[in-house]
Design goal:
7-stranded mixed beta sheet, 6-stranded mixed beta sheet, disordered C terminus, 23 strands
Length: 498
């Protein structure tokens, strides 16, 4: 019970901040001397911090399912603010701040954040839609840091070894570089935002590809050692709400995957596997041994009709890269009535490993009457007005409506060997249809992702057979009944792609 003289408004918030700070020291055994002896030597208690000094940025998406999730999170934040203080924070939806497709990559938005909130705010706190926040505890965490200084706060991830998705960065010592797990929430102090915004204005962003945003944001802030490293904050967590460790967390996760009721039926999903003659005996048998059995409607599309599989020759010559001609032929096949009419189309490579039951459960969250393009989102030229696309290796999922709108637009490949996923991204961007990201799809192998990052996921797909046993990977990570946190064994073999 609160003392009578503290039972109102901002005083309640300050009292809770004090309790949170006291509880943190009690649990961790920290003292003022301890804080001054490590990375956080500039930490200072700031009991005057209130919610008006925090800007929450929800990393939202325009798809209706994701808007609903973002709205629930915003409602939770504002209700907790009402319970704590009369002064609610600013809560923004990232996808609605402008018409720029690249806003999700965050760095191009920093000048806007600096100009709009630089004078009256102390912190920008970024949250994913599935991040649960205890606002009082989070206030206590931020109050320990001097908001007049530069801070980059989060739950740190690191690579066990150099990886293709990070362009083999820090090859000599990959674990040395830490980057934030966005699911736990992460924060930038306004002084840091202002300095980064000035840098962006003076030196416009030039990166062509956005592949792993959390790593690329951390790289930009680090600035080849001239900038700031991530400061680990143990209260920013990816524990589930009911975990024994959750009471010590300011942020948690409600579930490792969205649960939306009934899964989409097997007969509502058509699966198209892209292959070619040279992989009929190498990759196709892996599909048949692993995930094909979970598909009700599946066809293999190749440059050669092999009745033993069987494969269908679409009349498009095989190309060593790109495969745009083949992919657009599949889209036309799906829309033509040549295959059973289904609500969803999934296009995968012959070296993609995928859990169809998990995918069908996820699709239960989406409205197939909307133009949905779902998978792992990459970006090209986002800081220069570029476009987003679903990377093909992790699997590309389309609602029938998306396929029909795409084909009716007349958008097409500029060559058969153009990159199919990127051309599709350009087409959807021209139509004004945003692609939808899910972190459960993966363009690379389990070994290419941080162990802690995968530990709170129920993954849907991985990609590539090189330097792994793909059947063993499927059985460990994706087969029904497999643990959702399968053992992660770093690959120590040379990185030569087959």
């Amino acid at each position: 019970m609160l003392p009578n003289n503290l039972n109102t408004g901002p005083r309640v918030a300050r009292y809770l901040i004090f309790l949170s700070f006291f509880h943190y020291n009690l649990v961790t055994g920290s003292s003022k001397k301890d804080l001054q002896s490590d990375d956080a030597m500039n930490v200072a208690s700031n009991s005057q911090l209130d919610l008006r000094q925090i800007v929450f940025v929800i990393q939202s998406q325009s798809n209706s399912f994701h808007v609903q999730r973002a709205e629930r999170l915003r409602a939770s934040l504002l209700q907790q603010a009402t319970d704590l203080t009369e002064n609610p924070p600013v809560v923004l939806f990232l996808h609605s701040l402008s018409d720029n497709e690249g806003d999700w990559s965050i760095l191009p938005m920093l000048p806007h954040f600096s100009k709009t909130f630089g004078k009256n705010s102390s912190w920008l706190v970024f949250l994913e839609e599935d991040t649960d926040v205890k606002v009082g505890e989070l206030l206590g965490v931020l109050a320990k840091f001097d908001g007049t200084k530069e801070w980059f706060l989060g739950k740190p991830l690191h690579d066990e070894e150099s990886t293709i998705i990070h362009h083999y960065a820090f090859a000599e010592n990959p674990p040395q570089f830490k980057y934030p797990d966005f699911s736990a929430g992460w924060a930038l102090s306004v002084p840091l935002v202002q300095r980064l915004a000035e840098r962006i204005r003076d030196e416009p962003l030039k990166s062509d590809f956005t592949i792993d945003l959390k790593h690329e944001v951390a790289l930009y802030i680090w600035n080849q050692g001239q900038g700031l490293r991530l400061t680990a904050v143990p209260e920013l967590c990816t524990e589930l709400q009911d975990s024994p460790r959750a009471p010590h967390c300011a942020t948690t996760l409600s579930a490792p995957a969205p649960a939306c009721g009934e899964a989409v039926g097997k007969d509502d999903v058509f699966v198209a596997v892209k292959t070619c003659q040279k992989f009929h005996t190498e990759r196709v048998p892996v599909v048949k041994e692993t995930w094909e059995q979970e598909a009700s409607l599946l066809e293999y599309y190749s440059d050669y009709a092999d009745p033993s599989i069987p494969t269908i020759n679409l009349g498009v010559p095989n190309t060593e890269r790109g495969h745009c001609g083949k992919t657009f032929a599949i889209l036309k096949q799906f829309a033509s009535g040549a295959v059973p009419e289904t609500k969803w189309l999934i296009i995968v490579d012959d070296d993609t490993l995928i859990s169809l039951p998990r995918l069908r459960a996820l699709l239960g969250c989406y409205d197939a009457s909307e133009p949905v393009c779902l998978g792992e989102r990459y970006g090209y030229g986002l800081s220069q007005g570029g476009y987003s696309y679903i990377t093909g290796g992790g699997g590309m999922v389309f609602s029938r409506e998306a396929v029909l709108q795409l084909l009716q637009s007349g958008c097409k490949c500029y060559s058969d060997d153009a990159p199919d996923d990127m051309v599709l991204g350009m087409c959807f961007n021209a139509l004004g249809l945003a692609v939808t990201h899910s972190p459960l799809f993966h363009q690379a192998r389990p070994e290419d992702y941080a162990r802690d990052y995968l530990s709170h996921q129920v993954p849907i797909s991985f990609h590539k057979h090189w330097n792994i046993d793909p059947v063993a990977v499927f059985n460990s990570w994706l087969r029904e009944g497999a643990p959702t946190t399968a053992p992660h064994q770093p690959d120590k073999t040379p990185k030569t792609e087959l």
